[in-house]
Amino acid sequence: MCPDKTRAKKQKQLIFPADDIHYPGQTNHDACYIPECVRQHNGEPLYILVAHWCLQQQDWVQRSQISEAFHITARRASYLMSYLRNKASRVVCVCRRQTLSNKA
Predict the structure, then answer these.
(1) What backbone phi and psi angles, to 5 degrees, belong to 21?
(2) Domain-embedded: residue 63
């Protein structure tokens, strides 16, 4: 029987976790930085960490702010915002739609 490589990788992450790094459960996602203000929620899924962080901002949040705070790509931050807005049953969110003028 072949050893399970994903299990070994996951165990390695659990043996050497850093408080400021989030290791996702899915192997197709990269690790990311956890801001200090939400580290007490370490162990929660990334979208929950992002939701707590957004709540602490007490203002409208843009994907660039999430990207910068969690050291992830703007594309991944945009995906997380979409997930929070549409599919997360554990999160209540308010969305603001703003039409930008085309300055072409």
Answers:
(1) -120, 135
(2) yes
